[in-house]
Design a protein that fits this description.
Layout lengths: L2 H34 L3 H30 L2
Helix pairs in contact: 1-2
Keywords: Membrane, Transmembrane, Transmembrane helix
InterPro entries: Uncharacterised_Ynq1
Protein name: DUF5337 domain-containing protein
């Protein structure tokens, strides 16, 4: 297995971990916010942070895909 394949696998695992952690933290934040009676503005901050994490993970996957397609 080449070093590039190993690097792509590592990036794939990183993207999967980012997606999983962001989702779990977002769900926890929503649950805690509902329990504590936080305002919608506070919930929006959590939503935007989760979206940023998803975009970063998408960029990692895009990089892997571009490298595999040879472009």
């Amino acid at each position: 297995m080449s070093q590039i394949d190993e690097h792509d696998r590592a990036l794939g695992r990183k993207a999967a971990l980012i997606i999983a952690v962001a989702t779990i933290l977002w769900l926890l934040l929503q649950w805690i916010g509902r329990q504590q009676g936080w305002s919608a503005q506070v919930a929006l901050i959590g939503d935007l942070a989760a979206i940023a994490a998803y975009i970063y993970a998408l960029a990692l996957v895009w990089r892997i895909w571009r490298r595999k397609s040879g472009k």
